[in-house]
Amino acid sequence: MVEILAFSGSTRSGSYNKKILALAVQGAKDAGANVTVIDLLDFKLPLYDGDLEDQEGIPKNCTKLKNIFIRHQGILLALPEYNSSFSAVFKNVIDWVSRPTEENSEPLSCFKNKTAALISASIGHRGGARGLIHARSMLENINVTVLPTQVCIANADTAFDDCGVLKEKKSVLSLEMLGEELVHLIKQTHVITPASETTPIDPATMNHPSKLDQKFICDFENEGGITD
């Protein structure tokens, strides 16, 4: 079964990016994937600080998030554009989970052998595309394969009806198709366990990767996560 982790880089309750994420998630589910949707508000983390890590260690929410990342082959990200880049809360999550832990001592281990798809919604006419440029560059530099296709929903403040439904059917289809594309690429590039051999994944009780999972994690050189 293809396992995909999906979340928005926005924590706002009425986030446009959370709305479009649901459409891409549905596309991935229709293509046969099991999708774990999380809200970053449920995994609150302090601003990354090397001294804080040295003094207090890795926060429990960071460990939970890192284990969730490890157990999924794909990542579906809906990222808002903040001042022509991605949000601070998204970057902070990436910075924390990149750190080695006792269970996963290798830096950047939770990003290896991962495939990601990017979408964005913005009230601007570019639909958040500038932020995705930075996100794509960062993810590719930490060993994540990012789909060339991306979907940006412009003028998001008028793109949804009073019920929060995206008005333009073409945009709905594009988001659903991107979710499907992510699943198809993962099937082509990963060793997938049949659905009959898997159990539903609970983000709160995520286990560490099995030896079979580790066997198929490619080994890449990296710069070791965060350095000062």
Describe the structure.
It is built from eight helices and five strands, in the order βαβααβαβαβααα. The longest helix is centred in the last third of the chain and has 21 residues, at 169-189. It has one domain: Flavodoxin domain (Rossmann fold, 3-Layer(aba) Sandwich). It has helices spanning 16-30, 50-56, 60-70, 88-97, 129-141, 156-159, 169-189, 211-215; strands at residues 3-8, 34-37, 74-78, 114-121, 144-153. The chain is an alpha/beta fold and 228 residues long. The protein is globular, with a radius of gyration of 17 Å. A five-stranded parallel beta sheet has the order 2-1-3-4-5, sandwiched between helices. It starts with a strand and ends in a 13-residue tail after the last helix.
**Helical content (DSSP H or I, runs of 4+):** 25-40%
Order of helices and strands: EHEHHEHEHEHHH
- Morphology call: globular
Work out the radius of gyration.
17 Å
Tally of individual helices: 8
Quick overview of this protein structure:
By secondary structure, the chain is of the alpha/beta class. Helices cover 38% and strands 14% of the residues. Helix 5 links the parallel strand 4 and strand 5.
Provide key terms for this protein.
single chain; 228 residues; alpha/beta; Rossmann fold; five-stranded parallel sheet; 8 helices; globular; disordered C terminus
Layout of strands and helices, then pairs:
Layout lengths: L2 E6 L7 H15 L3 E4 L12 H7 L3 H11 L3 E5 L9 H10 L16 E8 L7 H13 L2 E10 L2 H4 L9 H21 L21 H5 L13
Parallel strand pairs: 1-2, 1-3, 3-4, 4-5
Helix pairs in contact: 1-7
